[in-house]
Amino acid sequence: MTPSPRGTRGLSRRRFALALPPALLVSGCAAPHRGTGRPGDPIVLTLLSHYASGVLREALQGPVDEWNATHDRVKVRTLAVEFTDLLTTFMVRQAAGQGADIVHPYCLWNGQLVRAGVLRPAPPEHAEEIRRGYGEAAVGAASVDGTVYGYPTEVQTYALYYNKRLLRAAGVDGPPRTWRELEDTAYRTTRRDRYGNTLVQGFGLSVYDDSTTVGQTLALLSAAGGRFVSADGRSTALDSPAGRAVFGLERRLVVEGASDPGVNVYQAFASGRVAMVISAGWWTGSLRAVMGGAYRDVGVAPVPVPRAGDARATLSTGFMLGVNTASAHPREAWEFLRWLNTEKVRGKKGTTATRMSALQVAAGSLTARADDMRTLLGTGGDPNLHPFLDALAYAVPEPNGPGAQAAKSLLRKNIEALWTGQQSVTEALRAIRRQVDQEVARSW
User: Fold this and answer.
1) Structural contact between residues 359 and 62, judged by C-beta atoms closer than 8 angstroms
2) What totals of helices (H) and strands (E) does the chain contain, helices first?
3) What angle, rounded to 10 degrees, do the helices at 215-223 and 241-255 form?
4) Backbone φ/ψ region at 232: left (φ over 0), alpha (ψ -120 to 50), beta
5) How far is CA 309 from CA 161, 176, 392, in A?
6) Residue 368 to residue 53: CA distance in whole angstroms
7) Within a 10 A sphere around the Cβ of 124, how many other Cβ atoms?
8) What is the rounded distance in angstroms from the CA atom of residue 40 to the CA atom of residue 33?
9) Taking Cα atoms as reference points, which of 57, 283, 321 lies closest to residue 156?
10) Taking a C-beta distance cutoff of 8 angstroms, is the pair 384, 304 a contact?
């Protein structure tokens, strides 16, 4: 569980240094001197993100290098930690007076970071640019209590991944559109050996991480017209007909043997041992790399709805780039973010899109700039990304109040108890209501 803001305010500078991840300590020590902006002494802005390795690190460094090569007075230095260390690093650095100028948080944390005094509200001209240029869900995720705090970057919507080969083998023509069809397809595609061991799961439920445990549950909840917390963020709204229906569906799939929560669904789906799973769009890039030629069997469809004719809905999560309240150069930081996230540049085949959109597509992800995404994906991109793009129009953002991360952790714990038979549907919903209400209603 991530620490509360109050848990880091009293840290000494010595304890702060000891608490930082080693990779960040190395990067921080190597950072250039923060100059004054005079000729020969440029301002150096630090940007702290979780783009610590692989494609994302390289994709971000490209535009940063471009900026540094074309701007003499203001330079940008990237710092990175693994995602699991990101929130703690934000809080600890802030408490020690060493916060980065530009931060790249998971939007779920925005309420907590605002209360901790980390995030600076976007200036009016930037806030207007953000509201005009991005989808409603992304703007909502980048806002707290109606105030915009940053430029949305990577956005993830949830959809149904399915294995075309496994569905065909079970005599199923296409992906399910309703929950009844989802259950039927899950049971038909489940296969066992003569000893009763599961060879193929019909529908992948997994306790592996939040993306599968909580993410797919909230995607189904959105499809059913429900929500996790109330509109004012002060109580849980999961103990409802929609929440009961979602928990009942998941529990039946486990009891009937179509789902095995103990299996790592990421590995099992890629190896053809899971027929369907709900997950986010980032997974497409990983599946292409891991599956090779077998990726041709992967299809993506909207999250099924309870009944035919129901309006589509799903979950969206995302990240944003914002400016630290402690930055000595906020105007320059916002200008860099505008350049990165709104200025259109010409790319391959004559396409034009923002640098951030091009960055995300190169890494197999999306931004919430639907016009950019349609342009970039229409030039030979992965067709499996299109359902995630379409979902931007109807996705529901995660609630991001001050207690959101703790509430999500409590939800995950109780979902796992439901799946493993430790709690009934009623018991799980009551436990979530009691525990989450206590968390989100706290006086922060």
Assistant:
1) yes
2) 20, 14
3) 130
4) alpha
5) 21, 13, 19
6) 23
7) 9
8) 12
9) 283
10) no
Instruction: Dump the DSSP string for 259-323.
Output: --TTS-HHHHHHTT-EEEEEEETTHHHHHHHHHGGGGGGEEEEPPPBSSTTPPP-EEEEEEEEEE
| Triad 416, 166, 393: Cα angle to 5° | 65
Residues 356/381/136/337 CA torsion (nearest 10 deg): 0
DSSP state of 218: H
**Range scoring the smallest mean pLDDT among 104-118, 251-265, 342-356:** 342-356
In the block, residue with structure tokens 């848990």 = 7
The gap between the terminal CA atoms of the chain, to the nearest Å, is: 17
Q: Tens digits of per-residue pLDDT, 94-128?
A: 999 999 999 999 999 999 999 999 999 999 999 99
- Residue-wise pLDDT tens digits, 19-76: 444 444 334 333 344 444 555 678 999 999 999 888 889 999 999 999 999 999 999 9
The DSSP letter of residue 363 is T
Q: How many residues does the chain have?
A: 444
**8-state DSSP, 35:** -
Closest Cα to residue 74, out of 314, 340, 289?
Answer: 340
Per-residue b or e along 218-227, where b marks 16 or more CB atoms closer than 10 Å to that residue's CB: bbbbbbbbbb
Q: Which residue do the tokens 């995607």 mark? A: 219
Q: At what angle do helices 54-70 and 330-341 cross, to 10 degrees?
A: 120
Given the DSSP bridges, would you call strands 102-103 and 314-323 parallel, antiparallel or unpaired?
A: antiparallel
Torsion-angle region of residue 257: left (phi > 0), alpha (psi -120 to 50) or beta? left
Mean pLDDT (the chain) is 88
> For the chain, how big is the Rg over CA atoms in Å?
22
pTM of the model: 0.86
- The DSSP code for 379 is T
**Between residues 337 and 17, which one has the greater pLDDT?**
337
Tokens 């430790």, residue? 422
Q: Rounded to whole angstroms, how far apart are CA atoms 155 and 370?
A: 11
How far apart, in whole angstroms, are the C-alpha atoms of residue 183 and residue 197?
A: 20
d(CA 376, CA 362): 10
Sign of torsion over alpha carbons 356, 361, 364, 368: positive
* AA identity, residue 171: G
Q: What angle do CA 409, 103, 219 make, to 5 degrees?
A: 35
Angle between helices 404-419 and 241-255 (to 10 degrees): 40
> Taking Cα atoms as reference points, which of 296, 256, 253, 257 lies closest to residue 278?
253
